Amino acid sequence: MRGKRGRPRRRPAVVLGDRGYDHDKYRRLVWDLGVKPLIARRGTEHGSGLGTQRWVVERAFAHLHWFRRLRIRWEIRDDLHEAFLTLGCALICWRRLRSL
């Protein structure tokens, strides 16, 4: 068998970024990888529309911070931290499905 294990990796078509990444250096790096950067510009009014997609990610992190063990990483071993992260995600999904 040739190649690496697992499913083949795919590049995203677009990368979203907030105003902290508003620099031509970062835009060039992303373009060089063949990905279109959608980065909010500094000095412009809010309302670029990027917040609607970023909100989903920020909400997911907020849900994971419900669990004290995940808020501050106490585990030294990666496998234990990943196990707690998986358990936290499963509990979040279970609570969400139970409320439907």
Structure description:
This protein is 49% helix and 8% strand. It has helices at 24-32, 50-64, 68-71, 78-98; strands at 14-17, 36-39. It starts with 13 loop residues before the first strand and ends with a helix. The model has no long low-confidence stretch (mean pLDDT 83).
Reconstruct the topology from this structure.
Blueprint lengths: L13 E4 L6 H9 L3 E4 L10 H15 L3 H4 L6 H21 L2
Parallel strand pairs: 1-2
Primary descriptors:
2 domains; single chain; mainly alpha; 100 residues; two-stranded parallel sheet
Radius of gyration: 18 Å
Q: How are the strands of the biggest sheet laid out side by side?
A: 1-2
Average pLDDT over all residues = 83
Largest beta-sheet characterization: 2 strands, parallel
Helix content: 40-55%
Helix run count: 4
Q: Give me the secondary-structure category.
A: mainly alpha
| Terminal-residue CA separation | 45 Å
Tell me the count of domains. 2
Order of helices and strands: EHEHHH
Apparent shape: extended
The quaternary state of the protein chains shown equals single chain
Strand tally is 2
User: Spans with pLDDT under 50 lasting ≥5 residues?
Assistant: none
What share of residues are in beta strands? 5-15%
Summary, kept brief:
The chain is mainly alpha-helical and 100 residues long. It folds into two domains: 12-50, no CATH class; 65-100.
